[in-house]
Every structure is written in C-alpha cells, then in structure tokens.
Amino acid sequence: MRELAGTWHRKGFTFAVLALLPALIIYTLVRFIPIVETLRLSLFQWNLISRRKPFIGLDNFRELFTDALFLEALRNTTIIAFGVLAITVPLGLVLAALIHHRTRSRFAGFYETSIFIPHVVSLVPAAMAWKWIFDARLGPLNAVLGLFGLPPQAWLFDPVLAIICVIILCSWQALGYAVLIFLVGFKNIPQSLYEAARLDGASALQCFRHISIPQLKPVLLYVSVITLIAAFNIYAQVFVLASDSQGAPGRLVRVLVLDMLENSFRNYRVGYAAAEAVILLAIVLALTAIQFRVFREKGRA
Amino acid sequence: MSDKASADTGIPPTPGQRILNGVIDVVLIVFCILMLLPLVFLISNAFKSPQELLQWPPTIIPRDATLDNITSVLADTPLLRWITNTFFFAVLSTIAIVSTSAVSGYVLGKFKFPGVHIVFGMILATAIIPFEVYMIPLYLGVQQLGLLNSLWGLLIGYLVMSFGIFLIRQYVISSIPDELIEAARIDGASESWIFVRIVLPLLRGPLGTLAVLAFFQAWTAFTWPMIITATKDSYTLEVGLALFQTGFTVDLGRLSAAAALALLPSILFFAFMRRNFVQGVASSGLKE
Question: What is the band of A111 on the pLDDT scale with cuts at 50, 70, 90?
C-alpha cells in the first residue's frame, strides 16, 4: 500500500507544484512584494521621480504625529468607523432578530433583499442619491426638518454635520451585511435552548437577552471587526459626499486613504504616504488581533 | 423567538402573538421602504423635468416623465464607454479569480505535502491586509510595466481573491470525498484529468457563487480604478460618474440620470443572482 502511495505521490507532487505555481507567482507580484515594499518605503524619503531615496529610519512616522492634516484624517476616520459601528451593530442585531422571528412571513424575502440591496449596489450612484437628500437647498432632509419647525442645516458644509452624513451613508451600506451575517447566526442557535427557556417561563425579551446575545457573541465580534476595518478604509463615500476636488461644493472630510493618496500623488511624498499605510495596517492588525484573542479565550473556556 | 418554536411545532399562534407579529411586520416594512427610498428617488429624479425636481413634496412617480435627462447625459458623457470598460474589467477579473481559486483551492485542500500549510497561511494573511495599504507600491509596479491608464493595469489589482481560495478549499475539504479521487487514481487517471473531469464539475456551485462576488467586487471598485485610469475614455463607470458629479455645471436631473443608468446594471444583476450572492456573503461570515 505504501509503495502504491509512493508512486502517485511523486506524480501528485509535480501536479500540485505546477498547479499552485501560477497563483503563487501572481500572489508574489501583486500582494507579497507590494506589501513588503510598503513597509520598506515607509522608512525612506522619496519624491516619486528622484533617484535620491535616502533612508531616514522612523522620521516619517515622527513627522506624521505632528502633521495636523494626518491627525485630522486619523481623528475623522476613527470617529466615522466607530460611528458606523455604533449604528450598524445594534440596529442590525434588532433587525435580524425581527426578521428571524418573521421567517415564515410572506414578506421575509422582501425584508432580506431590501436591507441587503444598499450593500451591493455601486457606491458612487448610491452616494449621489444621499448627496441629494443632504443637499441644503433642494434636499428632502431639510424639508422634513422644516415640517417639524426645525431650521435647515448646511449638512455637507458644516464640519461636524458632514461627518455625520458620511456615517449615515456608510451605515446605510453596512447594515445589509450585518443583518445577513446575524441571520446566519440566529439560524445556528439550537432551538432546544429556547424551548428549555420557555418551559422555565422566560419571556421573548429574556430569551433574546440571555440566549441569543451570548450565543451570538462570536458573530457580533466578527461583524464589529469587519465593519470597523471597512470603515477605516473608506474613500469613495467621502469623495462623493464631502471632498472639495475640482471645486465641488461640500466641505472636505479628510480620511486616511484620501490623505494618503494626496501625499503620494499631489505632494509626491511616497515614503511619507507609505508610512501612513503602515499605520493603517497597524490599526487593522490590532483589530484582527483583538478578534483572534477573544476567540481563543472562548475556545479555552 | 419563543413563538417561532411554537410555529415550528405546529401550535397555532394566540391572538396576542398574531397582533405582535402584525406590528413587527409593519415596522419591518416601513424600515425596508426607508432603506430603498434613496435609490427609488434617485431613479425617479432621473425622469423629472427641472421644474418638477424643485417641487415639495418630491413625487415618486414623475408626473410628466421625460427622457431628456437621459438622452442629454448619453450625449454629453461617454457613459456607454464607461459601462463597457467596467464590464470587460469585471469579466476578466472574474475569470482570473475563478480559475486561480479553483486550482489553488483544490490543491491546498486535498494535497498534504509539507509546505502546503505555509502557502495557505500566507495567502490567508494577505486577506487581512486591506488593498489600500499596498496599492501605492502596486501602482508603481503598474507604472513600470507601462500599463497605467489601461484595462490590463486595472486588472493587475484584481487577479486574485484570498477569500475565493479559502471558499473553494473549504468546499473541497467538506464535500469532495478522498475516496472519489483515490479511486480515479487507482484506475490510472492522471492528476489533471481528475481535476478537470471529476473535481471541477463538483465545484460548479461554489464557483458560481465566487464568480458573482468577484464580478461585483470589480464592478463596484473605486479607489484602484481612480488612481490607475487617467483619461475620460479609460474611466470605469464608478470613476467616470464620481468625477462627472463634481462638475459645477451639472444639474440634478442629469446627475440622477447618470447615476440611475449606472445603478441599473448592478440592481438587475443582483436580482438575478440573489441566491448566489447571499450565500457567498453569508459564507464569508463563517470562517471562524
């Protein structure tokens, strides 16, 4: 048997290597090398064209933490990311609970689809729809406020309001994903837990609080981390809603990716931009590490 | 939830539960309509005359629908060109992702040579790192190849998808029995024959799901096409539209018309591929 295994083993090995080779080459060229390059470039000063590319150690990072624009971008992005999280996860959880409760309703398909559509449609047209809603002069949002006797707001011109607009747009998009994953989570909770609780006389709300939430903890954490990571990388939404490029109306909400692109392509500071990318990477890795750690603790318990 | 259990066991709901269910349905229906409203208005605005656009409350079905906005946008912008560019980009990216994922997912799932784990680990590790982190060095690479502002340059960013390899590998491990492959080997089948004739047909389901995800990913890509494309006729739909809407002179009717035209393909595609898509996204949440 071992002999037989040995003969195909060698053939199998050749096949495996040849089959993996194309993907490995592509990965090396478009993932591994650029990732390493980002780390390397962050230690150099380079203006994209010059032959001179001096090694400057951690100077880029030191400068970043005194750079008002970068700090503004970091602050805005963090606020947006946690704002989206604070809206998406609780709201998504409640919606998923309600939809799961009404699985047998004839509207169940409609619920899932209509909450999910904003997550899948193209970003730019969707953001344009919201730009009209927020529009100070023509937008329905101010008109609705007017019905309640509230004064109109310059949504996309006010620094604080513009960030709120970005949070609303991003939450509208992220919600569908959260609901979908939570629904999968609800379906995986054993029915026997609810039946036992019901025999003990627990109310629906008590079941939700003491069975659903603890059972969904890993899923909750997963969705939270994914939502945060996605929000730390936003660019298109801000570009459409609140960037001032080419004189479009609207106040510029500076986010990390925008600041990074500006540094590399407008200011020609590639090393500096790479240092920003490394900080973005550090944030993402920290978030992932938190997730892994909680999972491991759960496995041990 | 407690009442769902009773529904499953066939006990009819009490009147109180029925009222509660009705209330929940109303809440959900209202919420869902609100979720869709921005897109509904966008499409409806595309057909409105300038006067009607200024009216309050805004109408959902335009009173005198006009095609002026759409014809004027199609005349003023290379919108159809952008749609074609995006389509070819998305199709090529889908082909690349589906084929690399099928082959690598199978090998990484069924061949237990030393090193296979390391390769899989490295591929998975790149899935955690956002594209935005390394896109500038990748851009410089594309520049060196002289592929800036071209379809091939765009494609370089979207050739592989770690989640795709992961998805196929999971499916291969859980749903393709070793005995099946073993039996073919004993019959003297070559490894590539086994892959093409036995494994690939079994992978049709997950590959379909992956194809839908990959197509959407490229169709809605923004940041990478934004830095790679530079001239009007090489823009993708998202980039063209984003730059079009920053213009001062463009009025709301034409903006909505352009956005609605851009939106329609993705909504239609989603409507047809809903099951595949939902499955794919849902399985991404199960990788614990």
Answer: very high
